[in-house]
Amino acid sequence: MMFLQKTQILFFLVAGTLGFAIEAITIYAAVNILLIDPYTPRLISYPIASFVTWYINRRFGFKIVKKPKCSEFFRFIQSNILAQLANLSLYFFLISLSSTLAQHAILMLMVATFVSMLVSLFMYKNYVFV
After folding, report:
1. Rounded distance, CA 113 to CA 26, Å?
2. Which residues neighbour 119 within 8 Å (Cβ) at sequence distance 6 or greater?
3. Residue 41 has what DSSP assignment?
4. Which tens digits make up the pLDDT trace of 90-130?
5. CA angle 33, 38, 39 (to 5 degrees)
6. Rounded to an integer, what distance in angstroms lies between the CA atom of residue 15 and that of residue 50?
7. Separation of CA 47 from chain center
């Protein structure tokens, strides 16, 4: 993670926090208000959070104002797939360990999100926004 500018890290954290908030609110409402399983809400929360974090990182963190090229978008999709595989795998694994952990889905989301943020930052800096 060497040679990251402070603004890149700051906006990455802002974007990640907003992405997490979008996912957490969606999951919380689905599990605690709608009384559905903690798996299904990710189908809605992830695409929204992903777009928001991509835009903030691209525009503000890495200061890219030109129109995105297909190759950049393809790299973004690849890195998101990798980060989300880590995120979803860890999230599903943790909530499947016990009903107690499943009842604390937001805490499990925090752990999974942290791991995927590290993967994303590495990929954005070294692969996507180069």
Report:
1. 14
2. 79, 82, 83, 86
3. T
4. 999 999 999 998 899 999 999 998 899 889 889 999 999 98
5. 135
6. 9
7. 9
